[in-house]
Amino acid sequence: MFLAALAAMAQTRMSVDSCMRYAANHNLDVRAARISLSDSRLDQQSALASTLPSVGAQIGAQFSFGRSIDPATNTYNNLRTFGNSYGLSISVPLFTGGSLVNDFRSARAAKRQAESEVDAQRDNASIAALDACVNLLYCQELSKIMDAKHRESLDALKQTRRMKELGLKSAVDLSQSEAQEADDDYCLTSALAQLRSAELKLKSAMNFPLADSLSVEMPATGAATVSNGLLAADNPLLRQAEANVETQRLNALSARGRLMPSIFLNAGISDYYYSHQGQTNESFGRQMDVNFGQYVGVSVSIPLFDGLSRINGYRKARNRYVAAQIALERQRLHRLLASRHRPRQLCQRDCEDGAQGRCRLGGIRSGATQIRRGTDGRARPAQKCRQLVCFASRTRALPFAIRRETSPRQLLHYKQNL
Question: Which of 6, 94, 231, 342 is the most exposed place for a label (fewest CB within 10 A)?
Answer without folding.
Answer: 94
